[in-house]
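User: I'm preparing a small set of examples for a lab meeting where we compare how different chains pack in three dimensions. I only have the primary sequence for this one, and I'd like the structure in token form so I can line it up with the others. Please keep the answer compact; I'll paste it straight into my notes.
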Amino acid sequence: MSWPDEDLKEEVEHFRSNVIQNDRPNNICFALSYPLSIFLKLNYDVILAGGKCTGTDGISLDHFWIKDGQNSEQIIDPTASQFPGLPEINYKLDPEFYLESEINWLDLYDNWAYSLKNGGLKRPHRLDPQSCEYTPDFDRLLLANIRAAFFLHSILRTNKVPYVSWKDHPYFDCIRICLYRLKNGNTKSDLLALPETKYLITEFGIKL
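Assistant: Understood. Below is the structure token output for the 208-residue chain.
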């Protein structure tokens, strides 16, 4: 079977367009790639991957993408176009641009939850307590998380995936933190008014 097949490309493009819409893909690689990998796992053997990506401008950044579980050179990078020289969606791992490293899932969830809870503030490194910095465009990051969670939740419901199999998934635990952050913040009322946010708040039983 050729990679990617037309069904896979259609599903990736559909998911991506629902999350990004008219925005740009910069700084939302995890917010898009992680839920997309959960969705694709319904029909494909895929794994979330992470490491560094370097565009033709020579700038190297932390990055997340999805790889084929049987062939790590076959990838899905739905936010590749944020790097100069890469296509909108990239399906082939080129070592000139990508350097994969092992994902520490415990640290990943911990840092993601911390950032969502603290308005984009990244957890300081244990060896450098002063290493505090904020995620660029945090409002955009929140919006991407909400759109992705809404679309993924809707797909799981539509496909009648048993609720017990995903209701306690760490991904949705972090989305709950995101929603609580919106609830308790005083600058995100515009996001609270979104239909996607209202849907998730209702589904997760969060009291406003």
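A couple of notes for your slides: The CA atoms of residues 81 and 88 lie 4 Å apart. The chain has seven helices and five strands.

User: Perfect, thanks.
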